[in-house]
């Protein structure tokens, strides 16, 4: 792989998290938290990323209010709708929304993503999550949050149902034949007819097949269940790694898993997160990172850390070293917590930080890799990971917005282009085009299909 | 009411049903069924209605594929998302989407509508339905479709939960105080804490209160349960009447019901459907209607009629009179079917049509009032209903699109303006402004609230 750098192209994705991924971004004078719940703010970010020919923008999501809301701007609009709004003012950029298989009905969610793909002319992606936040369950009438294995069992059925629904209309099911009065050929429309352990869905979707066949399936879970699910279903994977070696191990593990499922490894794109602080010199970049770290509210960080560690921390200990044993694995943590704990345990082991230093390390991007450096240094890191079997591209997680993405597209993207690693402009119109993913064949297609009768389908 | 015609203003709403409300609209050369699943088609219609200062556009919906798809273009995009797309290319027009309380979780749906209201700067409306189509149940894992009383019981709880969620952030809950690091005041954020018979929702919404307080609540059920529900909850009501006297009876019944619930009658707008064929002369208008009727596929119409009548019909009988007893009330029909049957029974009784004539009568707008006439005649009908206690405005249901709405705005709207019944342009920015509805007071508000910290909130 690393011997074809001129032909293989990076995927770059803008992960939009409110006014930035740094937890204190909203306090920085350059960010515009007052506009967080407006369409215009999101339009501006998406249009900026589109001008740089990014593959997609992406929103995380969970159907529950963050308990840290007092000190963190962790409220947000529903992402599928926000992307429908963005779709109307953009023409090329991919639109990836997170949605939960645990807390949605598949018929509703398949419709929402099919609609987003139609409205955007084939630019939709679905980041499939099972929702780790246990407080969400009580928003949906459940007494207990389903455990990870049950959540993933439902998720597997959910993806099967959703893909059946997206396939339910063959590409040539719409006739729109004014002369005969036949709008659709019922023999080319197929009921989902799914009866699983968790889900039952009888009918066909009430809209034609989406332009991309189905939205690009994205996944981000790092647990064992998450990796197995990703190997089987995902077409793109968002992942968090601090170290090249960890990222390489994950990359080979997933690509091997993908092959075991009889899929082509190049049809699954692995995109680690990177949260860059950029400066004219490394010292300037580090000073910028420090400026944000100094805006953090320790009370907030300690609460977050307490949840992760299942231990309590005291403000009085901020300048003492974090005890090495606090992040040892416990048997009763949830799987998702465990994979995030592993990241934190690695930081504590390698860097032996004070509590304050650890909070600052975690303030950046919740376990994703924060880099502070010159554009050349950041481009070097990206190039190294891309050409050494650790990444097919990156999920760019600016610590602050819009400034952080502006700095990246202005200073880093030109370097990547000069190295032949990133396109000058779009060469296709769909998210699948940008990522180099095939359009899935409809499971009911038996013969070469005729030209569809509908625009954009 | 009729003695203040100069001050009271009509509400006009564009009900977008694919390429028109006439069942054969898609076969007409003027319609563009090929664009039915594109954003651009919907943008164009919404922008047209906005130039005419209409109150809103509206989409019906149901989470199930119509069995008549072979002969009817009865497939469609999900309306909330479609309206989010429309919101991005419009500035004033209201955006009303139908969504089912039977087949959505309230936390998800409350978020979707809160987001639509934020993205549009306060233009969202929710047409609350319980979904009469029994086939939908099997798309959601249910063995049986809940009966109307159970559906309405759940709907009542659903609206209570949804309004609690929309109120969960007081208008001044967001502090966004960079200096202190406090983003929100947790004492001004309230959990839904709802435990009903059908629904349980624990937490608060994960986004601030929508600009309108909550989306405008719309309702359309004509059954007894539907009327009681509307009197209690609805702020606008879509209704179907063939005759002035029926519309007047409905109007007084609802306004009286509204008062019984302690609500102000002027805070509930009653909007009958009207589907106009316009011509330079009445004969031209009738010829246009005939042109569409002749495009109908009798096989389709007979199937629809069979479902409604719970009887079978034969193509050989098309030119014989419809037996008067076919639409007598039966005990086991669903309530929704019963209210539609009553409309059809009235037509059969009054007009004694042949089967073909009845199919043509029903081809227009599924029981809504079809009028064929000159712009003056249509404006006269609208004026009569508006000034004689039958309507606060109209849900305009063009038989074909975009031509039918273009004819209406070009020829009828100027007459209504000349009579002082319809505004020249918008006087406000939200859907509540257009309809003359108050912004609901937050149930948790105790003192005069300070200025909100967020744009558009």
Percentage of residues in DSSP E strands of chain A:
5-15%
Helix content class of chain A: 25-40%
CATH class of chain A: Alpha Beta
Task: Report the CATH topology name of chain A.
Answer: TIM Barrel
Point out poorly predicted stretches of chain A.
1-6, 330-334
Chain oligomer state? homodimer
Tally the helices of chain A.
13
Average pLDDT confidence of chain A is 92
CATH superfamily of chain A: Luciferase-like domain
C-alpha-based Rg of chain A, rounded: 22 Å
Number of strands of chain A: 13
Topology order of chain A in helix (H) and strand (E) letters: EHEHEHEHEEEEEHEHEHHHHEHEHH
Largest Cβ-defined interface:
A-B, 84 and 84 residues
Distance between the termini of chain A: 34 Å
User: How is the biggest beta sheet of chain A arranged?
Assistant: 8 strands, parallel, barrel
The coarse overall form of chain A would be globular
Class computed from helices, strands and strand pairing of chain A = alpha/beta
């Amino acid at each position: 792989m690393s011997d074809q750098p001129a032909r293989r192209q990076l995927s770059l994705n803008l992960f939009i998290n409110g006014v930035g991924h740094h937890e204190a971004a909203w306090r920085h004078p350059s960010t515009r938290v007052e506009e967080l719940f407006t369409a215009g703010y999101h339009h501006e970010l998406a249009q900026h990323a589109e001008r740089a020919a990014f593959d997609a923008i992406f929103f995380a999501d969970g159907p529950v209010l963050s308990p840290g809301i007092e000190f963190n701007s962790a409220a947000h609009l529903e992402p599928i709708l926000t992307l429908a709004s963005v779709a109307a003012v953009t023409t090329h950029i991919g639109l990836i929304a997170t949605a939960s298989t645990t807390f949605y009905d598949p018929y509703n969610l398949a419709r929402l993503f099919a609609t987003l793909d139609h409205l955007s002319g084939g630019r939709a992606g679905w980041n499939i999550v099972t929702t780790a936040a246990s407080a969400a369950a009580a928003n949906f009438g459940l007494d207990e949050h389903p455990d990870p294995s049950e959540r993933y069992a439902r998720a597997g059925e959910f993806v099967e149902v959703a893909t059946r629904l997206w396939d339910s209309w063959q590409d040539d099911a719409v006739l729109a034949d004014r002369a005969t009065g036949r709008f659709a050929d019922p023999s080319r429309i197929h009921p989902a007819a799914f009866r699983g352990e968790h889900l039952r869905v009888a009918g066909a979707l009430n809209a034609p097949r989406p332009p991309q066949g189905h939205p690009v399936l994205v996944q981000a879970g790092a647990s064992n269940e998450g990796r197995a699910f990703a190997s089987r279903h995902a077409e793109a994977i968002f992942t968090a790694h601090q170290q090249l070696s960890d990222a390489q191990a994950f990359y080979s593990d997933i690509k091997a898993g993908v092959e075991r499922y009889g899929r082509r490894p190049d049809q699954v794109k692995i995109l680690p997160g990177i949260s860059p602080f950029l400066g004219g010199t490394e010292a300037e970049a580090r000073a910028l990172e420090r400026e944000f770290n100094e805006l953090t509210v320790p009370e907030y960080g300690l609460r977050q850390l307490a949840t992760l560690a299942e231990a309590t921390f005291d403000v009085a200990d901020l300048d003492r070293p974090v005890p090495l044993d606090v992040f040892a694995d416990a048997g009763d943590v949830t799987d998702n917590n465990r994979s995030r704990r592993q990241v934190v345990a690695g930081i504590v082991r390698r860097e032996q930080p004070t509590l304050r230093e650890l909070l600052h390390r975690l303030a950046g991007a919740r376990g994703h890799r924060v880099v502070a450096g010159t554009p050349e240094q950041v481009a070097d890191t990206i190039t190294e990971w891309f050409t050494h079997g650790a990444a097919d591209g990156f999920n760019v997680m600016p610590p602050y917005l819009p400034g952080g993405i502006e700095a990246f597209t202005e200073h880093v993207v030109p370097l990547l282009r000069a190295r032949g690693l990133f396109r000058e402009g779009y060469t296709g119109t769909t998210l699948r085009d940008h990522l180099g993913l095939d359009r899935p064949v409809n499971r009911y297609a038996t013969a070469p299909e005729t030209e569809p009768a509908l625009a954009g389908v």
